[in-house]
Amino acid sequence: MKQDNLLNIFNNFNNPQILAQFITKKNNDGINKVLSSKFNSYSFKENILIVPMQKHTTNVILSNSAGVFEDCDGVFTTNPKIVCSIKVADCMPIYFAHQNKTVYGIIHAGWRGLINGIIKQTAILLKNSKHNLKNFDIIIGPSIQNCCFEIGIDVADKFPKKYLKLKKNRKYQVNLQKIAFDNLIKVGFLKEAIHITPDCTFCMEDNYWSYRRSRGTTDRMIGLIGYRTFKKN
Ligand SMILES: [Zn+2]
Hints:
The chain is about 15% helix and about 30% strand. By secondary structure, it is an alpha/beta fold.
C-alpha cells in the first residue's frame, strides 16, 4: 500500500506508542477490507478493531474488547491490543491519546453531535474512568472547514451566534473546528494539547470523500488509533 493512501498524524501525540491514521480516498483497499481487520500493513501492533455503528449520537463508550457497537459515535479503550475506528466524510474525526497511560480513542463529531454535546460526553466518560483530561493530546483530523461548510437559517439557529458569519448568498458560514476547539477547552482539556489538521475534505477532492460535495456519497474515510508495532524515534 502506498503511503499517500494514509495520513500519519501520530507525530502530534506525545505518547510514543500511539499510531493515529486517517485512510484517505486514495486507499485502494476499500473500507470493508480495512474494517475486516486485513490491515497489517498499517503498522498497528495488533488489528483487533472496535467499530461503532454511528448515528450522530452523543454516545461514547469505553471497551476493552473488540466488536461492533450499536448506537455510538465515539470509542475508547485501555487495551493496547485494540484499534479504535470511525468513518467520516466531512464530519470531524477527533483523536484522543493519554500522554503516558494506555488510554486512547476517537469520536465522530458532525454538527449534530457537536451541538448535542458529544465532546462533553467524552469528558464525562474519561473523568468517570478516573483519567485527568489535562493529560490528553487531541487531534482534529481532516474535515469540512469554514471555507465550505455553509448552512441555512434553520440549522444556523442551533449554533451560538458568535460562530456564524452571514455570506452574500444569505447562507451562514460556520467554523466547526473552532466550536470543537472551544468545547474541548470548556470541558477541561488543555488548549496547547489540541492540534487541528487544516485539510478541508470538501476542497481537497483528490484526497478526500465529501458527503456535501457529492450530495450524499456513501464513501467514507476511516480514522484509526491504536498502538504501533514499534516506538517512533
Ligand atoms: Zn473547503
